[in-house]
Amino acid sequence: MNTYVVTLLDTTGIQSYIFNSNRLRENLGASYLISQATGDVESEKDWIRSNLENPEIGVSQNKVYEPIDKSRLNAELVYAGGGNAMLLFKSIDIAKQFTKKLSRQILKQAPGLNLVAAHLEFDWDDDGSLKKKVKLLQEKLEKQKRSRITSAPLLGLGVTATCQSSQLPAVKTSEEYIEINKDEEEDIYLISRETEAKLRVVSSKHGEARNEANQALKKKFKDVLNNTGYQFPYRMDHLGRTRDDNSYYAIVHADGNGMGERFKKYVENSSGNRDYIRRIRKLSKSVDRAGLNSIKKVIQTLINSISEGKVTGKFPIFTQDNQSYLPFRPLVYGGDDVTFVCDGRLGLELAAIFLKALQEPDLYLGDGQPMTACAGVCIVKSHYPFARAYALSEALCNNAKMFVREQKNKWGQDFSAIDWHIAATGLLGTLGDIRQREYTVNRDDRLIMRPLLIDSKETQDINQWRTWSNFINIIACFKGERNKNEEECKMWMNKRNKIIALREKLRKGEREVKQFKIDYRIENLPSIKNGNNVNLTLKKGGWTEKHCGYFDAIEAMDFYFPLK
User: Fold this and answer.
1) What gap in Å lies between CA 479 and CA 492, rounded to an integer?
2) What is the Cα–Cα distance from 551 to 504, expressed in whole angstroms?
């Protein structure tokens, strides 16, 4: 009997680790540290591979994917990414030796990041053994995560100072890691060991080579950035600000739909342990490829639009010391969990571009099917607390997922969807509270039609009207960017006051909208495709199915720029 050990690794609290600070530099550093811990095993400094290649583990010369049953190696990496990993070992002692080394490295280089590991032995000669053990191991790992005794660090005595980002005891100041620019406001502040680790990998004060996170990002996206002259920003102000005008940034959080079930379904009919490994590795790598290439599509579209004047004609690109910065920065990328930050005026369009790119045929996953996902976009003023804005973007993504599940239960098909919130002031309460307080009329009627489905063959098949294309077509009509010969669009050209007046009537309901149309001699509101008789109902009174069809577009007019 050939007995091996399967090990699952998982990092807990990833989102809070990355986004618990309001400083973009620290978020970038945290994201990089997580990618090194259990993320990109193809990079030069990933920690899983470096510990596997340790002589005591018995893997060398980048052979981490070599079949453990056909080689003399002591370990095999099945997959790694998204904060978790699966590995095989020749014995339980080797498995524990590896996790001990990896845990020690995380404690030293990424303090505050928590790793959970679980091991189980299985019989290689039993074809179904690995699949059964992994299922048990996943349950065991979840149980460990729930029952794990969280560390309770000493928060400080009377003589200690507090880190401004993590609220942990400070060990030094940020002076060593930030470059003070006379044209920018950059205060020196107290930092803890956790914050120091995040700043260390993004610091460029002592030379570009020290900025590990930026160097890794440049290498990852060199094929789209090469020879363009653009860099990724490392401060919120570098995303693009318009002088003497309100400046906003957008956080976009996207997550794949039902990926756990999809993995289970794909490996369900695997024929033996090696086929199980092949399938799970193939699907995992295809998910990483889809997420990464979709981000590349966003970057390429943005660069093309800038060069054609479609962005610079609306607002300036931030430039400093002859260096131009893209109004976009990926924070978490690769895999089905993606987060990026950008200029607030680009958030909606870039999110939609990302979701559409995921479904392109050349990015179909290892099981031969397209990847669907949902995105939440939170648009807030430039110095609004980053962590709170991210939390809302995550809630918006979850709200879009609920809408997709409702549609899937009804039609038996999967969709991608987007939801968003534009905060002109602050954010008070949960997403449900905000929607009830600001977007509800007559108890149950919603001023908004979002979440919206991203257009696809499936949305046409079900004749759905709550779609992204309807939203952007309404905006184009109100802005006079749609066919100027359309009678329903002519009356809105250069009539911003009339559009704002319509917004206020929409708040009061269908009867007020109809009276507004009579007063202004408006025959119909902009057309909406699909939905059977919905178009006629909306054009007459602005409302249908307890949803308003036009408020979203009016509210978002200043936060949507089409990019081609």
Assistant:
1) 7
2) 9
Strand arrangement, sheet containing 114-123: 75-81, 84-89, 3-12, 114-123
Task: List the chain pLDDT tens, one digit each, 564 residues.
Answer: 689 999 999 988 888 888 888 888 888 899 888 888 887 776 666 888 888 888 888 777 678 899 998 888 899 999 988 788 999 999 999 999 999 999 999 999 999 888 899 999 999 988 888 999 999 998 888 888 777 666 666 666 666 788 888 888 888 888 888 765 544 456 788 989 999 999 888 877 655 545 788 888 888 898 898 878 888 888 887 887 665 456 889 999 999 999 999 999 999 988 899 999 999 999 999 999 999 999 999 999 999 988 887 776 667 788 877 888 899 999 988 778 999 999 999 999 999 999 999 999 999 999 999 999 999 999 998 878 888 899 999 999 999 999 999 999 988 889 999 999 998 777 777 888 888 888 888 777 889 999 999 988 888 778 888 999 999 999 988 887 766 556 777 777 778 888 999 999 999 888 899 999 888 888 888 888 876 778 888 888 899 878 899 999 999 998 898 887
Any alpha helices (H) in 343-385, and if so which ranges?
A: 347-358
- Domain 229-438, second-level architecture: 2-Layer Sandwich (3.30)
Nearest to 539 by CA among 473, 495, 481: 473
Q: Which amino acid is at 261?
A: E
Domains 3-147 and 229-438 equal at CATH topology level = yes
Segments making up each domain of the chain, as ranges: 3-147, 163-210, 229-438, 464-564
372 in Cβ contact with 403 (< 8 Å): no
The CATH T-level fold of domain 3-147 is Alpha-Beta Plaits (3.30.70)
The whole-angstrom separation of Cα 67 and Cα 278 is 10
Q: DSSP letter at 451?
A: S
Closest alpha carbon to 8 in 130, 146, 148: 130
φ and ψ at residue 350, rounded to 5 degrees: -65, -35
Angle between helices 386-411 and 431-438 (to 10 degrees): 80
Q: Is 317 exposed, middle or buried (0-12, 13-18, 19+ CB in 10 A)?
A: middle
- Per DSSP, the three-state class of 368 is coil
Q: What does the alpha-carbon distance between residue 383 and residue 239 come to, in Å, rounded to a whole number? A: 12
